[in-house]
Design brief:
Blueprint lengths: L2 E5 L2 E4 L4 E8 L7 E7 L6 E6 L6 E3 L7 E6 L4 E6 L8 E8 L4 H4 L5 E4 L3 E6 L1
Parallel strand pairs: 2-11
Antiparallel strand pairs: 1-3, 3-8, 4-5, 4-9, 5-6, 7-8, 9-10, 9-11
Length: about 130
């Protein structure tokens, strides 16, 4: 059974940084597109970033572009999300996901992902 386990969430002041990690088990990690999504209370799930397996391209949601960086280590089956210049609006539960998408369009859509982690809370105080 595939397991994705996120870590690194917490409470940080506005302007601060956090680094989220996602460890995958029993997964041919290098052949999966890895994504980060987030969901705030009362809001829909939102695309944050993706790392494509086939092209090694990375994509970002408009609201995090320039502040967040996704990276993956296929040898360690991990994907990370470095979050800088955090804002209170970044407060949400962050989820790691794995899927087989090979296009940018598909990578932005949460329902194209097959496996999900349990989520990690990120809270940014003003």
């Amino acid at each position: 059974q595939v397991q994705l386990v996120e870590s690194g969430g917490g409470l940080v002041q506005a302007g601060g940084s956090l680094r989220l990690s996602c460890a995958a088990s029993t997964l041919t990690f290098s052949t999966y597109t890895m994504g980060w999504f987030r969901q705030a209370p009362g809001k829909e799930r939102e695309f944050v970033a993706a790392s494509m397996w086939k092209t090694t391209d990375t994509y970002y949601g408009d609201v995090v572009k320039g502040r967040f960086t996704i990276s993956r280590d296929n040898a360690k089956n991990t994907v990370n999300l470095q979050m800088n210049s955090l804002e209170p609006e970044d407060t949400a539960v962050y989820y790691c996901a794995a899927g087989g998408s090979t296009s940018r369009f598909a990578a932005l859509l949460w329902y194209t992902y097959d496996y999900w982690g349990q989520g990690t809370q990120v809270t940014v105080s003003s």
